[in-house]
Specification:
The chain is mainly alpha-helical.
Length: 194
Amino acid sequence: MSDKPSYLGLLNAIALNEASAQRYLSVWIEATTDPDVQAVLRTVAWREGEHGMSFAKRINELGYELRRRDDPAEHEHAAVAGSDMSDLEKMEHFGLDRLDDVLHGFDDVFTDHSIDIRTGELLGRYVAEEFDTARLLRGCYEQLAARRAGAGGEAAPAEAGGEAALADQVEALGRAVEELRQIVCAQTMPTGAS
């Protein structure tokens, strides 16, 4: 049986994806002229970069090295981020308007009970920050969509779906709060008898 952690691939994927996101968000920050969008993207980019480095560092601490891979989409992401598309169009292109769908991927992170304490702490903080990042980006997206609607554009997503869309958002928020509660409870539970 191998001593190699079963979750090493997860850590590697997070490190690579977060570092990639930090790079294209940095390009976007330079391209946008909206100070509100810049502020949100700076917060998110710093987090993504820190996550990339933290997970690469954790892989190294476990005695392994980050395995880099070519990502052809990274060049496309940078091109879109630096393009003259509107910030709203960029958010939609990158799926930042539907992050709740992506966040469900974290539902099973802690089903691997072999995760060591330090990695668990890192993953818990990462998941909590990703949920907060989703809230920041959702707020930014809704603000941009409302501006477009106010300028005579199409209806903002919340207006288009009416009460059903609001109910879905409340339900998603409830799920996110419950998931965070479970993470916090799991981290504060005693690890064994003294």
